[in-house]
Structures are given as C-alpha cells and as structure tokens.
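Fig. S4 source data, part A: sequence.
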Amino acid sequence: MKGALAEWHLGPGSVIDRFEVNEYLRPAPAGGEYEGYDRTLHHFVTILALRALSSAEDRSRFASAAPRVAAVRHASIAPVAALGESEEVPYVVYDCEGRSSLEDAVRGRGMPPEPALRLLAKVADAIDSAHQRGFVHGDLSPSTILLSPDGQPLVVGLGLAPLMSRGADHIPFVPDPSSTAFIAPEETQRGEITPASDRYSFAAIAYEVLTGSPPNAQVLSGSGKIAGLGPATSRVLRSGLASQSEARWGSCTAMVDALAGAMREDAGRRRPSWPGWLIAGTAILAVAVGLLLWATSRPTTPAAPTPAISLSDTAIEQGGSLLVTGSGLPANQVGTIELESNPQQIGSFQADQNGYANVRVTIPANTTPGGHVVSLCWDSMCHASAKLTVTERAASPSPSASPPPAPSPSPSPSPPATASPATKKSPTPSA
C-alpha cells in the first residue's frame, strides 16, 4: 500500500490489493471510507480502512470474523469484494460505489411517506436477517447505508464495530461525532452492542428519513407529537427510541409495519369529523348542485398533478453523480433523464404508482463547465426541469516519473505497464 498510512489516511493513488483509492468520502467504523476502483474488473468500489484495529489481538479477531461477515448475502447488504490486511491495517472492500449515502439523500429534507416506508422496509429486512444469523452492526446510521444508482439501500460495516477493542492498551471504538444521535444509550455509556442497540439506531434512521433531521436531546426527553408528524407516528418512533432496550420494538420490520399503520391512522385524523345532520344536509346540497352542473355544462376531467424534479446537489464536478427525484409524475410512467443544455440522455426512470421516481445519474466527464438544465422527459417532451451548475473537475495528481534507465549493451524487456482509470466513467458492458 502506498500513501500516508502513518497518518491513518489513504491519499488518491494509494493501492490496496487490486484496488486503487480515488478519494476520501467520510468517517467509517474505526477508520475511513474511500471511493476506490477495481483495476481488474474495471468498476468503482467502496473501501473501509479499519485503522483502529491496530493491535495483533484486534487483527486476529478481524481475521477470524471477517470471512463470516463476507459470507452474509442479502439484497440490501453491500456484498464484500475483498478483505485482508496491508501494513497492519485491516481493510474491507465492498462491491458498490460509495459516493452517495442515505444521509446525503435525506439530511435537511426527508422523504415522502410512501418511498420512505419502502426504503425502511428493505433496510429493516437486512438488519433483522443479520440478527437472525448472529451478527450485529453497532454503528448503524444514514452514513453507513449507501444508495445504489437505482436507489437501492446497501448496508456497509456489518459486524465491524463489535470487533473494536475497548481495553486500556488499545484504541477504543468511538463513533463518528455526526453519528452519535444514532447510537443507543447503553452502547454510548457501557459499550453494549446488541440487536436492541441496532434497533434503536434503526428508529433514529427512520426519524431522519421522515423528518430530514436526526433526533435531538429534546425529542428524546419529550413526549407527545413530534413536529411535522402525526401523534400515532410519533408514538411509534418514541417507542423505537426508548432509553430502555426492552421497551423498543422486537424487530426492525415490526417497527416499519407499525409505522405504516400509524401513518394511515394519522391520515384519517386529518379528515374533518362533522355531525350526522350536517353530513346529510351537505350530501343533499351536493346532489342538487351536481344535477344543476350536469344540466348546464359538460363534466371536466380533474387536473393532473404537476410534474416536479429536484436534485440532491445544485453544483457538481464533471463526471460526478447526483440523485434525481421526480414527483407528480403519471403513475408507472417510463421516461428519460436529459441534460438539455448539453443535449444528451444521462439516465432513465420509471415512476411508481404514486408518481414518484428516484434515480442516481452520472454527469458525463466531457460536459462543458457552467450552467445546465436537467429534465424529466417522456412522449417527446420534457415536463420538469431543474438548474445544475457543472464545475471543472480538479486534475488528479500525476505519479512521479521514474528516471530513464542507464544505457546497457543489450536491451532488456520492459515490464508491461498497469493501466489506471483516467476518468470516473464505468466501462461500456460487452454486448
């Protein structure tokens, strides 16, 4: 491995096994999360460098447990591409691109109820499945849930936090400060990592997915309705965030099911409740008005919702990726995502039955820097657009050139050069 490992940091161009580091992304369990590139299979990956597993005892525990973690298979758990140790630093490589996390998608804005429940159900099933196989996560938060290009949640870091030493002679596992709102009280106070502590973390994730912000001390110590949510939904979340582990939901899936029921209950509460005589009188009046309108005019079709688009970022580098969200679309509508100002298709979508679509797209590396327009298009028209600023991508540092070899009487064969990715484009799949 090349790079500043003495400083527990991998710089661009560092190499682990067959993977080359592109850039640092965010803190991760006991180390750092990086975007990397598989130089053999030619696609992007996520690398966790576990710097806190520094002692021989820590690394021995990792070597014993990691293959079992790598064997876990679930649609919403990031698959392990490789694991090992380089210069006494254990690492795990996940077969997924890690530029976007659930935190990036929901922080400050949350998600609408229906897509939120669908996403939470997938994460819940992944965590419950891991618990049934004897694994806990220990550092579950929106930043340890990545989103695939099609919006599929992928949990990373499963089973790593429990491996961290807590002895006096070792570096303790300390969650990233931005994730402490998602750590259960018993884990923070006594280092207890259990399925119940994961379920607390999941409840805190659900809170942020629905509200756009993590739960704070005032929310945890209060009672009653949570701002922006109905009373039944608030009760479900408060049960999941209970300080006593036995008061929490018995599984993450049970909590999602309760949330779905609570949201329906809260939606029903918002409908007005009127006395029977008023309802009857209103009905008679409505019939009379309806007959009058039918006799004097042709019926009209209710106006369709207005399509809208939003972007996870308003400015992005050439070759970068961002999340495109569409709402108010025709149910099950299929269409394309166009970069109109630099005319080309950069993605496609299919709306769900509620007219919602969520797709990650990559801005072509050759896009002209400056102002652009991203649009959702179908039926030969673009129906919703948003502005995007594309900036010139910073040049990657070039490796130092080696001095030319001294002349020799007879030429020696040169070893073949190893190709490194020049851009963030994924290769075109073979036909």
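Fig. S4 source data, part B ends here. Residues 1-7, 165-174, 406-431 have pLDDT under 50 and may be disordered.
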